[in-house]
Write a structure and sequence with these properties.
Elements (H helix, E strand, L loop, with lengths): L1 H19 L2 E6 L3 E6 L4 E6 L10 H4 L3 E5 L8 E3 L4 E6 L5 E10 L8 E5 L6 E6 L6 E10 L15 H21 L1
Antiparallel strand pairs: 1-2, 2-9, 3-8, 4-10, 5-6, 6-9, 7-8, 7-10
């Protein structure tokens, strides 16, 4: 009985500490999206017109790469629960940094209908909620920058193939003949 009481108290304390460590940031106007993560993110951009992952995507325009969406498979798998509120998560890749989570909503009026959040380093999961009961998330996009430590694969080295080997052997044979001739 005493052990159950201690375990129950420990779990309650852990839940309180976890909730106390949660940080929120909100983006929007008449429609507001709140993102809750372990470390507070920042609002990257908000806007109108279903622009996320489109021709005039403001996050891509700012130099970010689209890594994954809820409608297609991408370079980094994003798990995102659609609706008025839900959770998101992804497995970070060492190839990318500076993650941004974009949320597209069903709301066309009042605006805005897309929201983008900068995620702090190390944050790969969290939750979101929308303050308007008639508005729901219809899609999400994960963006990132290519890590500077990710260098491209080097190209071939000139002369390292079969022609280089033939030339090296030819030079060795010529050198050997000259050495024998002078001796």
């Amino acid at each position: 009985m005493f052990k159950r009481l201690i375990v129950g108290f420990s779990l309650a304390l852990l839940a309180t500490v976890s909730a106390a460590n949660a940080a929120t940031v909100s983006c929007g106007g008449a429609v507001m999206v709140t993102l809750t993560t372990s470390t507070a993110g920042t609002c990257n951009s908000i806007g109108n017109g279903n622009s996320l992952n489109g021709v005039n995507d403001p996050v891509n325009t700012a130099g970010y790469l689209t890594l994954d969406t809820t409608s297609t498979s991408g370079l980094v798998a994003l798990a995102f629960a659609l609706g008025n509120s839900g959770a998101f998560s992804f497995v970070a890749s060492s190839l990318y940094t500076d993650y941004v989570l974009g949320i597209q909503t069903s709301q066309s009026n009042p605006k805005p209908d897309y929201f983008a959040f900068n995620l702090p380093n190390g944050v790969v999961s969290g939750s979101y909620s929308i303050n308007d009961a008639g508005t729901s998330a219809t899609g999400a996009v994960l963006y990132g920058h290519l890590a500077t430590s990710a260098s491209p694969v080097p190209g071939p080295i000139v002369g390292a193939g079969l022609p280089g080997l033939v030339m090296a052997l030819g030079g060795l044979i010529a050198w050997r003949r000259r050495r024998i001739a002078t001796a």
